[in-house]
Amino acid sequence: MTQIKIRKGHSIRIAGIPQKEVITNLSTAEVGLCPIEYQYVKPKLLVKEGDHVEIGTPLFFNKENPDQKWASPGTGTICKIQYGLRRVIEKIVIKLDKDGKGFSHKAIALNATAKLKREEIKSVLSESNLWLLIRQRPFNNVANPEDEPRDIFISALHTAPLAPSLDLVLKDQKDALQAGINVLNELTNGDVNIGISSNNQIEELTGLDNCKLHQISGPHPAGNVGIQIHHIAPLKPDDIVWTVNIQHVIILGQLFLKGEIDPSIIVSVGGPGAKNPIHVKTRIGSKIETVVKDQLGDDEYRIISGDVLTGRKVEKDDYLGFYDTIISILPVDFSRPFLGWIQPGSSKKTYSLSNSFLSFGKKLFNFTTKQNGSKRALVPINAWEDVLPMDIMPNPLYRSILACDIEEMTQLGILECDEEDFALCSFACPSKIDVGATIRKGLDIMKMEG
Predict the structure, then answer these.
(1) Does the pTM of the predicted model rise above 0.90?
(2) At which of 258, 280, 296 does a domain end?
(3) Which residues contact 123 (CB under 8 A, 6 or more apart)?
């Protein structure tokens, strides 16, 4: 077992950490899928309003790769298909039935999952339309079933702000986790690598077979799978690796153990704007209003599907992002403090990664939507470098992307990057530059050049 110590980074001391208990009696009347959240997908509908679908029924496919189909996360009736500009499909909404029937196949014993052949596994994943559970690097898009990954990576270390507690996520799920690992192991000629905490005390993460465990310590973004890839087995030119969220590994395992799709996930709901930060057991694509029930006060707030660094703003009538397991709630604040950045402060009022403020202590901070400044000229004071635990020079890479210099971007390691790994750079940036968005722009350029 390898040991990796991440030294650069920063774990944000945000208030509203969810309590270590799970609300299980939550039910939702609707679920939704948002095709626009998937990278490099041109969706083609397979359903229309009024159609009845079951869990696993394909709703649309990727015109660029027809083998990539998106499964319905619920059984019910298509009640709404929302289009945006140029008829882009924004939402597919399903009104759920009480009967949750869906895709099924023969259940397989745990020890038998390690003996399945690759083509058998691919066939089940294609029939259940669950390839979208697996993502692919570079570009972090949905995996191509025709590709053979060099390795597969799973992060079992949550360092993102307000991330769900892993001991709650994995409780009583060891068989499903092991079955999912067995299946993924057969899909690669390399290794299934799992990053765990260096002081791991979760029983479900001990004694696992058909995988390599890596003990990782350090601040966020140590839990990001991209950072773990970089430190365990970096991407080389023409390499392809797959990544899977650990809750999706459990869904894969249950697919083979039980012969059916269980879209249940545990989501953390927290942040300074949450009245009662807690974990909830819900399903993929749940309506936001259902998940944040009894969490919102009378003040103005912002709901984020995902963590505060990488999530997207949503409204109560939107739906949980497919890959999101966090809902963050922040108070809205447009106030402008007297004296601005030169005001004296304390850890109760001011949060600083540098010495710009007199910020002391380790107390949790009531973050708001306030940006504390506007976009300004680039200030090269190593703010990005201090929080990026990768052997990549972010400043030259940023400039090469703005210049659309493909050769230099490649040499500087753009294909090893993803915007979530640079989110802390945006947070720490004194120039208020969205570094992650620029990284995605660079990846888009590389994808188009293909």
Answers:
(1) yes
(2) 258
(3) none
